[in-house]
Amino acid sequence: MSGACRGVACGLIGVSWWSDRVSPKMNMRILYISVTAPSLRNGGGRHCYANLRALCEHPDAEVAYVGPPLEETLAGLDRVTMLVARPFGVTDKIQAALGGTASSAIGLYREIPARARVGFDVVFCETTKVGFAIAEFAGKATTVCCVHNVELDFMNRGARGFSRLAARNVRRSEATSVGLSDRLLVMHGHDLTRLQGIYAEADIRKRVLLHPVCAFEGRPPLAYGARKKRIVVPGSLDQRYNEVGILAFLAECWPSLQALGVELVVAGRNPRPILKRAVLAAGAVLVENPPSMEEIIRDARLVLVPDVGGAGMKLRVAEALSLGVPVVGTREGLFGYEEANEFGRVVPSIATMADAVREIITDPGLGERLAVMARRIWAQQYSYTAFSARVRAWMDELEPGLGGRGPKLSQR
Predict the structure, then answer these.
(1) Are 277 and 283 in contact (CB under 8 A)?
(2) CA distance between the termini of the chain
(3) For burial by CB atoms within 10 Å, which of 54, 136, 193, 290 has the most?
(4) Does the CA dihedral 51-48-289-309 come out positive or negative?
(5) Do residues 312 and 149 touch, judged by C-beta distance below 8 A?
(6) Mean pLDDT value across residues 301-318
(7) Quick count: other Cβ atoms within 10 Å of Cβ 152?
């Protein structure tokens, strides 16, 4: 299967015998485990795809995949063998619940034949929720865990009942993953500080590599002066921290900005009725479930990220930078983007966002300079070229098969 994957057809159930498929010319055999299908359709999927593709592009790598099926043709995955690739089912959820594990991926993991579990040099886990896999391979292979977010910050702290039990399982898996992984790929320094604050681990910084998100290159940016006088608020509108932030911006900032004669566009997936009504009442434009955000953002003079929470890094910021669009956001919305005041503005609260928006929109020269910097910083830090170079660098430093982190960490 050219350009996408092999072993089994993408999206189908099946097992490929790893020991029969590895190439004798390769000297780094990688087991890749994900709970999210690599994809270009959502932020988490895009980060997984970037990781998987970068692993495959290493000249010495051969990658075996365990996770949900790939439902689209993705370039650069010629070296992927589908070991177990199928959707999660009810049985997987029951296995996870009864076993106290954090992810239904346990069902897929158990389908890997015993003779296909040997011979791996590197085990790459796309989440801390598969601590069971890291625990099995610790000391037998080099274990690498990509920390998409700190689970304590991401999950509902007020959860009760089964949700509270699930949160406890996730935290326990995160402790195992942090404690036993030889390499931790963490998006930014704030998440690293949070991990240090939660888990008692003196040498965690020695094992951490900062690994921010990337945006793939699309169409070239429009000339700043040729763009519409448009402000865009993109995001997953069904996420509570996005919805609350947008509602606050509409109430606290937008009334004072309407006199600027700008168009406000709120775009994203699955907005709830409360947000739909608020956007309509504000005289703004709502674009629900757009097939692509690129053209909406590309023609904008400014992107807003009025988030009040969340974790990890907001990929929509990197996507705005790739299109040369300045960004104004809260500290929570711009975590990880150390250059934020070079390509836009970081504001202390949503209530203060109006001043930053007004400063940029009313000064085309400033807007154009920020747009140039946005594209430059994307190329240097958040492009796939920069991303894959980081992956190749740490892969070259790995000593395949070393592994062995010792006992699990305790939690503070």
Answers:
(1) no
(2) 48
(3) 54
(4) negative
(5) yes
(6) 90
(7) 17
96 close to 102: Cβ distance less than 8 angstroms: yes
Distance CA 168, CA 157 (A): 10
Determine the Cα–Cα distance for residues 180 and 408; give it in Å rounded to an integer: 6
Domains of the chain are: 18-214+386-397 (3.40.50.2000), 224-382 (3.40.50.2000)
Distance CA 361, CA 378 (A): 21
Say what the pTM is.
0.88
**Across 16-25, 82-91, 94-103, 197-206, which has the greatest mean pLDDT?**
82-91
The Cα–Cα gap between 111 and 224 comes to 53
Q: Which amino acid is at 399?
A: E
Count of CB atoms situated within 10 Å of the CB of 276: 14
Closest by alpha carbon to 344, among 328, 358, 333, 331?
328
Residue 210 has which token pair?
Answer: 């900062």
Residue 83 CA, chain-centre distance (Å), reads: 23
